[in-house]
């Protein structure tokens, strides 16, 4: 048995070696200095790491980077140059302004938000399952404007998974989301709404993820519908960080009359490479993605 003396010696040596190999940084809110958890640390568009509950993240000293981006859904993105990484170890993010806070809803009867999600077929009432999300692939689900009405504001993106019991050691899985317009001539996703993908994530066994869009520009639901787009970072990040569970989302058996459709593309550099999934063409199933909306007037 190792004595207490030697135990503390080993602990000290291991921490000394770690500090020599890595640089430790912290991220806090510029408003109140509260640590920021789950911020994505990016380099050239790919994720290096994610901040923990104390706002801490570490970077290998041997890694060669010109700059990093610190991105979080609720805060403005901060670009940090390599020189600043050498001279500072605490970085502060500014809270995004709630751009929709001043919107006045004039029709009280239509004030309550409502959700648009794919309805299950009669064969899928008790069949809930998740499908593993592939690396290096984007998936888009067309969310229809079921009521064909105007002045409907999109307030949230909704991603659902199978209900599971959460665990204390569940890892936070970072990924990206966006919205895209839909081209009714080609019947394919067309243009991204947000110039930069939104950096989000979920815990491994998290059932429901609702992404609040109130801090972003006003996005109205077009009559032709809108696409919810999800993508992962490079598979290397997930493999190197030993994620025991791959990112996955719920899939539902849809009704034959459903207007929800699913598309995918592997070539992320080619905006025209979208293809409708075969099981979507046959109206069999799609990912359980949706949106929350409310009336503006």
Task: Describe the fold and architecture.
The protein has 297 residues and is mainly beta. It folds into 2 domains: 4-93, Immunoglobulin-like (Sandwich), CATH 2.60.40; 108-295, Jelly Rolls, CATH 2.60.120. It is 11% helix and 40% strand. Strands 10, 12, 13, 14, 16, 18 and 19 form a 7-stranded antiparallel sheet that branches. It has a 4-stranded antiparallel sheet with strand order 3-2-5-6. The longest helix is centred in the N-terminal third of the chain and has 18 residues, at 4-21. The radius of gyration is 22 Å and the shape is globular. The model is unreliable at 99-108 (pLDDT under 50).
By DSSP (H or I, 4+ residues per run), the number of helices equals: 4
Along the chain, the helix and strand elements come as: HEEEEEEHEEEEEEEEEEHEEEHEE
Structural class: mainly beta
Proportion of beta-strand residues: 35-45%
> Poorly predicted ranges (pLDDT <50, ≥5 residues)?
99-108
- What is the terminal-to-terminal distance? 73 Å
The largest pleated sheet is described as: 7 strands, antiparallel
Radius of gyration: 22 Å
Total tally of structural domains: 2
Q: Identify the CATH class of the largest domain.
A: Mainly Beta
Predict the CATH topology of the largest domain.
Jelly Rolls
Percent range for helical residues? 10-25%
Query: What is the CATH architecture assignment of the largest domain?
Result: Sandwich
Overall mean pLDDT: 85
Shape: globular
Number of strands: 21
């Amino acid at each position: 048995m190792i004595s207490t003396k030697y135990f503390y010696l080993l602990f000290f040596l291991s921490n000394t070696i770690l500090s020599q190999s890595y640089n430790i940084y912290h991220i806090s809110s510029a408003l109140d200095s509260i640590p920021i958890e789950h911020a994505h640390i990016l380099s050239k568009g790919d994720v290096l790491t994610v901040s923990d509950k104390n706002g801490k993240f570490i970077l290998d000293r041997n890694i060669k980077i010109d700059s990093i981006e610190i991105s979080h859904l609720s805060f403005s993105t901060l670009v940090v140059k390599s020189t600043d990484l050498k001279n500072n170890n605490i970085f502060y993010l500014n809270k995004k302004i709630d751009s929709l806070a001043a919107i006045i809803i004039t029709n009280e009867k239509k004030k309550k938000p409502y959700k648009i999600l794919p309805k299950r077929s009669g064969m899928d009432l008790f069949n809930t399952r998740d499908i593993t999300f592939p690396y290096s692939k984007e998936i888009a689900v067309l969310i229809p404007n079921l009521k064909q009405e105007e002045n409907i504001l999109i307030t949230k993106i909704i991603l659902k998974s199978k209900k599971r019991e959460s665990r204390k050691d569940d890892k936070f899985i970072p990924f990206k989301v966006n919205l895209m317009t839909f081209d009714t001539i080609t019947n394919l996703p067309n243009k991204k709404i947000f110039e930069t993908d939104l950096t989000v994530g979920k815990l491994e066994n998290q059932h429901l993820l609702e992404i609040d869009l109130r801090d972003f520009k006003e996005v109205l639901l077009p009559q032709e519908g809108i696409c919810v787009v999800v993508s992962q970072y490079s598979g290397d990040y997930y493999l190197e960080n030993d994620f025991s569970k791959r990112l996955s989302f719920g899939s539902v058996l849809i009704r034959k009359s459903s207007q929800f459709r699913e598309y995918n593309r592997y070539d992320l550099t080619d905006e025209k490479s979208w293809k409708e999934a075969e099981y979507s063409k046959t109206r069999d199933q799609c990912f359980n993605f949706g949106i929350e909306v409310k009336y503006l007037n």
